[in-house]
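Q: Please design a sequence for this.
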């Protein structure tokens, strides 16, 4: 199964464009995801290229900016294209579901707007639900190799 879950921070503002034929929104963004510290306690991050489409892309454009925490679920997609006679290979995460991260530096409110498909809200204060509290424990702690 090709499924990815990431929690990190946007390393730059999302770049949103619209397809010429369908006027469908396309958001491209990069998420910095922390790695586990090494044996010396040094921390590093991976910078993951992501893309989303339609209502999800519009939601990202409206509520997320550089430095904001983000949680997303999607899939890995590879591709290639020709540039100056050279074949260039790409790997992106296609984000199908995006959520606010509880306790992040943003207020996490949607201003009373109804959330697009793929987003969930709960409670009377219109804050989206989600984050680590809803990710099930799939692997028991005793089975983790580190």
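A: Design:
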């Amino acid at each position: 199964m090709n499924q990815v879950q990431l929690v990190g921070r946007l390393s730059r503002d999302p770049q949103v464009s619209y397809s010429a034929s369908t006027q469908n929104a396309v958001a491209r963004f990069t998420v910095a995801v922390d790695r586990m510290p090494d044996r010396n306690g040094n921390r590093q991050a991976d910078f993951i290229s992501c893309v989303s489409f339609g209502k999800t892309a519009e939601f990202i454009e409206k509520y997320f900016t550089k430095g904001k925490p983000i949680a997303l679920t999607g899939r890995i997609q590879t591709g290639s294209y020709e540039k100056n006679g050279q074949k260039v290979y790409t790997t992106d995460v296609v984000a199908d579901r995006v959520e606010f991260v509880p306790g992040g530096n943003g207020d996490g409110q949607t201003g009373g707007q109804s959330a697009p498909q793929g987003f969930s809200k709960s409670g009377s204060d219109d804050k989206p639900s989600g984050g680590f509290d809803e990710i099930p424990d799939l692997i028991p702690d005793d089975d983790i190799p580190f």
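Q: Thanks. Anything notable?
A: Confidence is low (pLDDT under 50) at residues 106-136. The chain is about 5% helix and 45% strand.
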